Amino acid sequence: MATQTLLDQVSTLLDQSGVAQGALAHAPSGVHMLRFSATTGQDASVYRPLLCLVLRGAKEVGTQAKTLKVADGQSLLVSHALPVVSRITEAARDRPYVALVLPLDMDLLRALAPDVTPALGTSAQDTFSISLCSTDLEMEGALLRYLRQCEHEDARRLLAPITRREIHARLLMGSHAEPLQKLLWHETSASRIFQATRAIQSDLSRPLTIGDLARQAAMSSSAFFQHFKAVTGTSPLQYQKELRLLHARDALRNSNEKVSDIAFRVGYDSASQFSREYTRKFGRPPKVDRGRPAAA
């Protein structure tokens, strides 16, 4: 019942906003809502740290290393900024795909982490930064209360921040606790890789030096490379390249900047090389993406 109630609430907000098909950035709550009545092709994008609940339908999300299928009743947690490829695999006109995405507040999670009992029996075998599990009723209930509180000014100001804190606390206590605890406790390899990904994101035009990143992470170059690939599903160089191309695609769609200027700004020395790699990644040359609307 909780899942159906949350689905009804999200569907109502989408209806009220006039979004029959597509995505809604719900300003009062900061939550993103998605509804699609048909399956989609693959789309490349960057997932920031987030919690995604699929309320109906199914979606595949993955990197070169691993692909996960998230279906209704399941939730996906992404702990690092990650270039991914995704596609909606189950959707129909009478049963559209509906999902709710909550961006994570990493500062809030760090503030809460010291009060959380470490998860017992945590495994170091899988440090991949996307985790999948069944959504618990308490989390669904908290998200439902949060959305309802955000509908009214007084509740949004007084109650919603408390419920938002509860949602983040439940992430540290529930089935997604292990990957978040690995990330938030500074001695873990996952947390050091998180800092490395932040360093790469901070200046995409900067040439990447594995040795420098490894020293900052207090690892050997070989250990750093191994841990980076385990967490992100790709190598540091490929990670930077994916981010460069995705950043360039956003710039092409949202600005009138020259293709060559965009290429140089994201770190390419050659506009022709940028064009080749862009076409290989997205299946069309950069100029075709000028003003092209974002996909699902």
Task: Please give a structural write-up.
By secondary structure, the protein is of the alpha+beta class. It has two domains: 2-184, Sandwich (Jelly Rolls), CATH 2.60.120.280; 186-296, Homeodomain-like (Arc Repressor Mutant, subunit A, Orthogonal Bundle). Helices cover 45% and strands 20% of the residues. It is built from twelve helices and ten strands. The protein has helices at residues 2-16, 106-112, 137-149, 153-158, 160-173, 177-184, 189-202, 210-216, 221-232, 236-254, 259-265, 271-282; strands at residues 22-26, 31-36, 43-47, 50-56, 58-62, 67-71, 74-78, 82-90, 97-103, 130-134. Strands 1-2-9-4-7-10 form a six-stranded antiparallel beta sheet. The chain is globular and about 50 Å long. The mean pLDDT is 90.
Q: Could you name the CATH class of the largest domain? A: Mainly Beta
The appropriate CATH architecture of the largest domain is Sandwich
**Count of individual domains:** 2
Give the full name of the CATH homologous superfamily of the largest domain.
Answer: Regulatory protein AraC
Helix content: 40-55%
- State the major sheet: 6 strands, antiparallel
How many DSSP helices?
Answer: 12
- Principal-axis shape equals globular
What is the first-to-last residue Cα distance? 28 Å
Taken as a percent bin, the fraction of beta residues is 15-25%
Structural class: alpha+beta
Low-confidence stretches: none
